Write the structure tokens for this entry.
Amino acid sequence: MKIDGVFSGGGVKAYAFIGALERVYDHNHTFERVAGSSAGAIIAAFLASGYQFREMDEMIQELDTKKLMDAPKWTTFIPFSKWVNLYFQLGLYKGNKLEKWIHKQLARKKIHTFNDLKPGYLKVIVSDISLGKLVVIPDDLHRIYGINPDYFPVAKAVRMSAGFPYFFMPKNIPTKANGKRSLIVDGGLLSNFPLWVFNAGNNRSKRPVVGMKLNGHPAREKPREIKNAIDMFQALFSTMLNAHDARYVSTSEKENIIFLPVDHVETTDFELNPTARERLIRTGKDQAQEFLKYWPN
């Protein structure tokens, strides 16, 4: 059966998507349109580009995520300089290696700009913190920035969506109104699980929409213990990532969402070992298998 898919953000926890996708394909479901925030945008872009599950599994299993942590070279020679870099550059890592890796994988399928994809088949969520807006790429590019989406690189859009604040440096887009540049960060900041994207306006789906959400059902999340300022910052950021979507999920069709409880892994743990990766993949397989026993109803 043909379905539309929406994938949440979650950083390296996205290995769980690989296991879940395997089970989806085992049940003879294939994705038409796809959307995602952050790490979910990476998975969505690969699916929209024509990657099959086995290809994605091999590609991501071979990825050495530590090599994506591209701090400026000068910060490796001066103690504590990375925190100075964080202050002035607004991020610890440039994110260029992540964008180049995404570009390389998409180029294998001859995908460079949104013009190379079927119209409407990929929607990438980003957050414009200069304008204070949630932006859907490619839909909003011309309206907000005066940019022709046909010439906008898919890899750039995905890298923007995966720009975890303070971890990766923000990207920017020139604004149409005043010629200044908007800072763009992780799409998850404003909508970490954009399940709404195929139910808005002319995007209303003619097919079943399956969502895959990392971190499990919002109603079952455990309360956070906050003992210090760092705990408070993490709790604030987690609330921003999940509050908007938790309200939507609580009122939407929960039976169309595969919840993947992977709280045992930190979003930015780029030094994840093989055992932890396999545990994430296994979680994805198990949760999707349980979901697909009863779906579609």
